Amino acid sequence: MQLEGSCHCGSVRFSVDAYAPYPYLRCYCGICRKTAGSGGFAVNLGAHAASLRVTGRRHLRAYQARLDDGSISPARRHFCGRCGSALWVDDPRWPELVHPHAGAIDTALPAPPAHVHMMLASKPGWVAAEGAPDDERCAAYPAQSLADWHRAHGLGEG
């Protein structure tokens, strides 16, 4: 699915071909929550890095988080340097992938048939992991990747 996205001020615009466009995975980890979260979680999609097209690149900035062990994450969280909007995450360990933040997408996204709540061990007390009673809830990472979840639900190429 072709997705169009932008930052709040319009300085950065992008398009990308998403293999996993359903915004089902809610991440409550401290990094996602603090850099892109609203409601205490962030939602990332899965897309093909080779398809990423960007205008306004001069306004892009990237952040690499410090992990609990003191090391720097290789994952790069891209955002607009003018308005601060979180746009996408990429990681050189998986150069074929890019993960746009659902909140930066302007294209209408399909409604997921279910939600998965991950990294709940990192969730602060003020945040409720809302959703359906049968939503999958994981203290850390779920067993299925973005692609596997899409395939298991019969949702596109996954």
Helix and strand run: EEEHEEEEEEEEEH
Total count of domains: 1
DSSP helix fraction:
under 10%
> Terminal Cα separation, in Å?
11 Å
Summing up helix and strand content along with how strands pair, one would put the structural category as mainly beta
- Main sheet overview: 8 strands, antiparallel
Task: Calculate Rg over CA atoms.
Answer: 15 Å
The CATH class turns out to be Mainly Beta
Beta content comes to 25-35%
Write the CATH fold name.
Answer: Metal Binding Protein, Guanine Nucleotide Exchange Factor, Chain A
Residue-averaged pLDDT: 93
The helix count comes to: 2
Report the CATH architecture. Answer: Beta Complex
Low-confidence residue ranges = none
Which of globular, elongated, flat, extended, rod-shaped describes the shape?
globular
Number of strands: 12
